[in-house]
């Protein structure tokens, strides 16, 4: 049941304010107390190590095991019979529940199988799998051994997968034989083969989970099936690791084609996620939480897998779409059937449902009386979607803003702490530990109402990336060098008079398509490699459902023939980056607008397409080139 709504009045923010202030003025005490929510093998004595600043480490010297905290701990505490994981898969017609005891046994067995393949503490395992329970089991099995997982989203193609394999250098790759996209069965093995052919690194073994919808055949010499891997395996116990040891690597798109390997540690991650589950998401042990995302993204890592399990809740793993599997009632059916108390998804998913069922005619058939809150993140939440969802469901809609890098919300309305009133267009207020600032180009704080770059004062709180995988230098260069002493989020925005943050979009060339973070630079690299392309630019333009959609503009090499080129380039991007890139349109143009120093004016092109035109810069080389694009962009 929803709790009574507190009217919008500032003094009611006291609980949040006090908590936030304490986290900023005395972070060590704040996080020491939060650390009590986690089982430690060696409890933390020191809280923050700042000896290598600007690289900070939380809970140095302490030891724990994340899998123990997410699984075994609850069995030991008497929750063994409680459902831990519910797989609801409309695309295969399967609904299956695992208790905490089941999950512990399956994870221990697969951990034993991995150990049998030579995987030990610190080794990497790449996981390229669909939304099946074995994916969660494989992740937790790595955590159990102190191995480091690197999950690659199934919608990525060979080039992206190869880049991640070469960066993570896995001992073993675990894959599903196929994924199921609506009615389309996607074979994973050809993608994996192509990625391994392109990658320099050669993993020792591949474990393939054969799905009946499309088994992988024939298997290669280095391959064994999941069933073969676990046959005869001995269950493995949890291996204690340092709080500062890596739990996983999750690659994310940057401005260049080379993805960034965001590192998550064990200790800070467990402490922060546990804290967030109760204080932000307001979920208690035994309650059902559903993040309708994909385990390949950070939302999936944090809020399908780790946070609900760390908190002793039940998590739903949904293999389907908001629409089309089979219809726009899918979310309501799942939420009703499993008595979901909090649903977390991306605004895009809500827009997709609204497009098919604008009046919410599907809803009355379902009992959503357990549902208390709807959380939305992954892209900007437009006020129209915020209002539509809130009115339809009759529960508060909580916009929350964060990134792969931070692993948990930077800004939100912390529902477990206090029922702060929300405001359309704003993900509310900074969460504990995040010193959020809006600054001008010189790094000076801007007054409320003025837009600037959003940065976060160091140190970032526990759970955020300590560095990039084996690349401290790139971490410092990419995030910490633009504004000394601050982390650059890459987003722009402003505060209002009451301290509510408004996040207005990326200030770099990262785009967000259907809640998926993509690099225009990576797409440009694929296009530029085509012999007929002399120059190109990819920009993200407004899309009513997906938020943004990529559009490409190419200039031909002298004498090249543009016939059939659009289809060819779209196919190349789909094959190499993956279907998720969703590039649907490529225009051949005579020239690209540039500054006199040769920089392509992508921001200006985007503004023209979205009807938010900014003044033409005085440094433009030839204004006529920009104007020539107007009919294509307008
Ligand atoms: N494996 C293989 N292919 C995948 C994939 C996966 N895991 N995920 C997406 N794709 C494919 C899709 O099938 C689609 O292929 P198509 O071009 O043949 O149609 C393509 O990638 C683009 O996918 P998407 O942009 O997701 O579009 P869509 O039309 O399939 O679905 C939505 C649109 C809005 C329903 C869907 O994007 C959605 O549910 N979004 C929510 C996003 C989300 O959960 N984000 C995580 C952050 S919270
Ligand atoms: P990802 O790393 O894939 O989670 O993408 C992070 C990016 O998504 C952020 O840098 C923002 O640009 C965008 N984003 C995520 N959540 C929000 C939100 N609630 N409001 C606005 N933008 C968001």
TrEMBL record:
GO terms for cellular component: intracellular organelle lumen. Residues 16-70 form the Acetyl-coenzyme A synthetase N-terminal domain. Residues 74-457 form the AMP-dependent synthetase/ligase domain. Transmembrane segments: none annotated. It holds the Pfam family AMP-binding. Signal peptide: none annotated. GO terms for molecular function: propionate-CoA ligase activity. InterPro entries: ACAS_N, AMP-bd_C, AMP-bd_C_sf, AMP-binding_CS, AMP-dep_synth/lig_dom, ANL_N_sf. Residues 523-599 form the AMP-binding enzyme C-terminal domain. It comes from the Bacteria. PROSITE patterns: AMP_BINDING (PS00455). Belongs to the ATP-dependent AMP-binding enzyme family. This is Propionyl-CoA synthetase. The lineage of its organism: Bacteria, Bacillati, Actinomycetota, Actinomycetes, Micromonosporales.
